[in-house]
Task: inverse folding
């Protein structure tokens, strides 16, 4: 089945640890996005990538890092510099042509313990 | 000023009524506009996209776009309790590639 797969669904992190969230898509989409959602809030853009080996910071990039070595994969690392990492993380992808929709994975819920 | 603004609600309508959800955006270069529905604890799902001024209808849903006023809306006719969710407006500048979301409007449809 074609789609966007995020793993794991739930992730627990100790303070001071880096963790990496996986996002893989087999839709042949060029563009990929990472968002953070806090309870009762909308989606805030962390990073986005329009092509392989290129990505741009979103509105809340501090404390996060990404890579885009393959078209299918856009992993997000939450570093120890991110002071409030507990949130719902969503990955999305879209074709990189005009007027195309973005579709989401099922999300990863990260909790700091 | 937020890039994409929505009334946070909650918006409560009786079953069978029309629900009207509104969104304004600040980037005049925006070219693509989307409405997503998000149930609690789930990821957003796309319900409507609109790219040119005017109305676009799909079943019980109608999206309306007015680029001059930088305004996009979603109407849900014959609202059902299953429509109760948070509705997210999203705006994209195709040149820059950023896809920005509003804070969402919580809709409650009462039986």
Result:
């Amino acid at each position: 089945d074609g789609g966007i797969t995020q793993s794991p669904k739930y992730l627990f992190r100790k303070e001071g640890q880096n963790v990496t969230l996986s996002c893989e898509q087999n839709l042949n989409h060029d563009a990929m996005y990472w968002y953070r959602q806090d309870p009762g809030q909308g989606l805030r853009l962390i990073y986005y990538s329009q092509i392989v080996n290129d990505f741009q910071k979103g509105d809340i990039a501090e404390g996060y890092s990404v890579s885009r070595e393959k078209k299918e994969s856009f992993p997000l690392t939450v570093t120890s510099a991110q002071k409030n990492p507990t949130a719902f993380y969503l990955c999305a992808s879209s074709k990189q042509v005009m007027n195309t929709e973005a579709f989401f994975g099922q999300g990863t819920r990260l909790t700091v313990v | 000023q937020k890039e994409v603004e929505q009334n946070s609600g909650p918006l409560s309508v009786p079953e069978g009524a029309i629900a009207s959800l509104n969104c304004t955006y600040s980037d005049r270069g925006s070219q693509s506009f989307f409405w997503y529905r998000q149930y609690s604890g789930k990821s957003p799902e796309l319900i409507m996209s609109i790219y040119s001024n005017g109305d676009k209808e799909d079943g019980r849903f109608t999206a309306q776009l007015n680029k001059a006023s930088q305004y996009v809306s979603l109407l849900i006719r014959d609202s059902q309790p299953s429509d109760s969710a948070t509705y997210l407006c999203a705006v994209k500048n195709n040149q820059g590639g950023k896809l920005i979301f509003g804070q969402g409007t919580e809709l409650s449809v009462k039986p």
